[in-house]
Design brief:
Layout lengths: L1 E5 L18 E5 L7 E7 L5 E8 L10 E7 L5 E9 L7 E10 L6 E10 L2 E3 L2 E3 L2
Antiparallel strand pairs: 1-2, 2-3, 3-4, 4-5, 5-6, 6-7, 7-8, 8-9, 8-10
Amino acid sequence: MTEDLFYTSCPGRSSVGNFNGNILARLWKNAVNPTLRGIVYAYDPLYRMTNSTYGEGTEIWANVNRYDEHLDYDKNGNYKQIVRNGQLTKDPNKRIYSIFSPKYMEHTPKVNVLQTGFRYPFFFRIPTISLP
């Protein structure tokens, strides 16, 4: 398996890195499946990851949006929500989405309720876990 990390530029994309150590893109391939695959990362002004976008091919533009992630933060920098999607088949309507939404105790970074959920293609469920 080969893997390359890009910090300041990304092949096939006009994205420019921030020169702060955050990874801009990751490309990989292996002997079993030699298709070049990659993920391009986006960050907010505080350098927190906000999106990751999957793609294939030498310019990472083929088959985009198969395995993406979106992150939201509250004003204290805690995760408000993480949404992930995954492509199960070549049919774009058959995706699985997972959602992770922690609820924090007031005035602390401590999680007291964790909501998770997933959807495939027509079913959605949000179980809630209360933590001590």
